[in-house]
Amino acid sequence: MTDTADPSAVDAQVRAATRAGLAVGLATAAYGVSFGALSVAAGLDVWQTCVLSLLMFTGGSQFALVGVLAAGGAAAGPAAIASAALLGARNALYGIRVKPLVGGGFWQKFAAAWLTIDESTAVSTAQTAPRAQRRGFWVTGAAVFVGWNLTTLIGALLGDALGDVRAYGLDAAAAAAFLGLLWPRLRRLQPIVVAIGAAVVAAVLTPWLPAGVPVLAAAVVAVAVGLTDWLGRRDASGSADPIVGDGGAP
Amino acid sequence: MTLWQIVLIGAIACLALKLLGYLVPASVLARPATARTADLITVALLAALISVQTLAVGTAIELDARIPALIVAAGLFALRVPFVVVVVAAAAVAALIRLWF
């Protein structure tokens, strides 16, 4: 379908993409609160927490960074950074997919790269008309950015006021948050096997390595399975679909 | 390392990765094996983080209220309960268990 195929149908799709983007922005904003609270619980201050949401702006990496710091403190810094970067690597692949859709010159591309996350990529690539793809990307990216940063601040201030986090079960909330990010990706056998293998590797290595390193070591499971395509699905297109369909965080 | 250094280096690394997708020719990163592996790394890291977050205290394994909380969370996600509700429920389960036992 192209922009000129059927103007009214395209207009309808652009409106639908706009609505989808705003809805996704609203939904993800809600868990900015949990990120803000967990980040403060991990030992970061309110400013550091807000800088993460503004500059890093990719939820999985942010949760990972504060999760590793919560376990190992500042000494686990290198492992925390590496975990965040490894989790953020998928955004580079999203960039390849949405780059032709967003248009514009250098600064617009720069802003687009900043806003390239699970949600903006998913809403954009779900559209068929180029105008709707572009609208879906920008509305989703902007809505998630505004909501995520505002609610991160609220969560950080709340977490600051809470004090002892274990009494409120915030450590368990962090595990549940990671599970929520993982859940939509467990639709095929291959990722399920990788998830179980990685969880076991991380747990077994925990007593033997510094905090944070077992998480990185678990990535080896993914590399081994990914390169050999063990338990892979041989489909005609030959490309894995890395986009979260529903329920993922930024 | 100070916390500020960790925050800034981590953030810049993640932003650089986003820019990378816009700068390199698509053919370099768009191979199926690369896409598949990147996807599985995301899965592996999230699973490893769940495991460590649920079982570890520093470098020790400690089985406590986090395990039932995670089981409740898994059940709620299976029932398609929204993210925030599940996270709050998991926290509540752990907090109540600690309060009562």
TrEMBL record, chain A:
Membrane topology: Multi-pass membrane protein
Keywords: Cell membrane, Membrane, Transmembrane, Transmembrane helix, Transport
Main location: membrane
Locations listed in the record: Cell membrane
Residue intervals passing through the bilayer: 20-44, 64-89, 137-159, 165-184, 191-209
UniProt record, GO biological process: L-valine transmembrane transport
GO CC annotation: plasma membrane
Protein family per UniProt: Belongs to the AzlC family.
Name of the molecule in the record: Branched-chain amino acid ABC transporter permease
Originating species: Amnibacterium flavum
From TrEMBL, chain B:
Keywords: Membrane, Transmembrane, Transmembrane helix
UniProt source species: Amnibacterium flavum
Name the record gives this protein: Branched-chain amino acid transporter AzlD
Highest rank taxon of the organism: Bacteria
Tagged with keyword Membrane: yes
Chain segments annotated as transmembrane: 6-28, 40-61, 67-97
